[in-house]
User: Fold this.
Amino acid sequence: MSGNTLDPYADRYAQRTRGMTASEIRALFAVANRPEVVSLAGGMPYTTALPLDAVGAMMGQLVAHNGSAALQYGSGQGDPRLREQICEVMALEGISGSPDDVVVTVGSQQGLDIVSRVFLDPGDVVLAEGPSYVGALGTFAAAQAEVVHLPMDSDGLVPAVLEETLDRLTAAGRRAKFLYTVPNFHNPAGVTLALARRPEIVTMAERHDLLVLEDNPYGLLGFDGEALPALRSLSDSRVIYLGSFSKTFAPGLRVGWVLAPHAVREKLVLVSESQVLCPPTFNQLAVTEYLQTQPWMEQVKVFRELYRERRDAMLDALSSLMPAGCTWTHPHGGFYVWLTLPEGIDAKVMQPRAVHARVAYVPGIGFYADGSGRRDMRLSYCYPEPNRIREGIRRLAGVVEEELDLCATFLPGAWSGTPRRTATSADAPAPDLT
Amino acid sequence: MSERGGPQREPGATTALRPEERGPDRQQEREQRERGGPQREPGATTALRPEAAANGPASGRGRAGGGVPPARTASAMRSGRTQPSEDISVVVLAGGLDLERDVSLRSGRRVSDALRMTRVQARLLDADGALLARLVDDRPDAVFVALHGKAGEDGALRTVLELLDVPYVGTSATACRVAWDKPSAKAAVRAAGLATPDWVALPHSTFRELGAVAVLDRIVARLGAPLMVKPAQGGSALGAQQIQDADELPAAMVSCFSYGETVLIEPFVAGVEVAVTVVDVGSGPQALPAVEIVPFSGVFDYASRYTAGMTTYHTPARLPAAAAAEVAEVAVRAHTVLGLRDLSRTDAIVTPDGAIEFLEVNVAPGMTETSLLPMAVEAAGLDLGEVCLTMLRRAAARRRATTLD
Assistant:
């Protein structure tokens, strides 16, 4: 009798599904959504702070007064009025773009996907920060691209590292299809590309004929004054820009966009139509109404203050509680702190102990395509209340102490373990993790 | 993760533990009819799920005291779903805060789905602060424990069920305490004459106090290599590692101690890996056909267990008749020696020279789409829902005999 693999379709799958396996890391996140656990793992915006009554009334009006259009198919490129408003939003970060060059997408995740489909063949090289946004890595993996990571410092991407990498690729007869970068309040690293480096990066891209994919979901969530100029504000032709209403308004509406040069934009629209026909009309009109009738920038300020308070709670707790040898970034906006453990400790290995201690984080390995990040973890402060953040850090500090004790017993020298596997897209939590 | 994520979790995966709050699922009814399942009179559209009424606040206690329908025999189970709506109120416990929460939620859904096909509308409850009130306010006739990991298998939660005088399917709290702890279970089955790989089980403190190098050296001198390193307690292969060389041992120990206080080290035994389900539906413990496990990666780890397509399962195992009979006997012996009840799953290796090495036993075996017990049940020609229902009836019937411990 021949055996059963429980998967009769196995010989039909595309190559890109390799690595789409059950993940122990992901399974552990199942516990993180329980109230007993302080989850510093998710990345959910704090939608409770939205003026829900007003938004509800607004959506009711939308259906009552414009329902036949709101519930109808729309343009594949996206609602024209919304594309105009998107240009106004981008102007806040110094971008001048034409509504004709905006493609509305189902969250900027779909933007990432259509850009990848337009540019990437299997085996192509994509440059990305190390660490990099896990959702982008998943998209590049599905496109069967090879990701080359560029280590950052506290000022973000390092121009010299970029230059050296580009030279090395050229010497090897290879060419990066694009550089993927999150310049503001990086997910997961929490750092921001320094103002002075921005023109340097763009100039270097010009010199090396490098395309830049700028992903900027957090740009308006800075805690210190004015938004920094986007890379796209420094070059119209060299930069493809991804934006989103998920952090400024509502992630559940899944409304994002791509701003791309004309030639690229035409292809993006065709690819998007083949994926989704058109972005959800109702959700686009809801965003349009929200921008037009609600004090949306005031609400962004509410979010900034709320996240700033939580950031402060996390940084204060980290400095008073974490054992010596831990280091972490100091974000000036956004959702995340990137923490590096003392030499010898592996954040993935430590994760079950943390779950026992009722605190959750995301091991750093998920933010690299090459198995790096074993000493690192991402901590998010966007969702838990400040007192819960303090409690979570207290628990985490205890877990690290125990792990240090354990490593002192068994690994008195340097870390001797070798990565047994590289991360897969399933090594990060699902989007609905708190 | 931010709004852009990996594969979307199944809707409701995190909140699905309140099916009792869901409305009638007409789609399910329709599918059931199409599959030739139990059917009400034509046009009886308002009679959807009359059995759901059995879960109402007024049920439970009165009926449980009034006697329980007799357990059905194996032959009745094979005959299919012949009875009208079932007059038993059932709770399936799943979730919990253990590392195996995700697996448990899937097991729980699978069991309640299987029960629904037998016309039992089970309530799926999580092991949280609301559980006791729910069990007391609306007493079930019996509980199916689909909780994996510590709470579900170490006996603690079962002790509480016994305190509440709520009968449950499966092994008693007392017996769980031994069976759940791998070193204790191995000692018990070895004392009864079964073969099990030699082992050493120690807590972190021993290594810290006596020096890890010295202790590990003695362990390697005794057990050799390759070795299996696993948490002394826990399932789903979480934390289990196969190491080829003694050099890998320190890192494996660090990794394993993250899962629990005590680590079990035993020689890796090469051979055919089998899982043998034992069920008792009224005529004593019986072994179902052994499932042979052949992971493509060579290691039956978490990914191999829960990703369809990563492991080939042969049911029954490709063993000579004598070996198959012996494996079945080992599983029944282990079940009996450890005082297990209703169901268990024994994991064992059949070595190339035909010896059977007992590895461990599971008192709350996985019930997911890729789990071994449901495969064995199917291979035996039984229906999972009927088997579960029979065990639930038996549990309800022995309520009066349950004692605290």
User: Anything to note?
Assistant: The two ends of chain A are 46 Å apart (CA to CA). DSSP finds twelve helices and 14 strands in chain A.
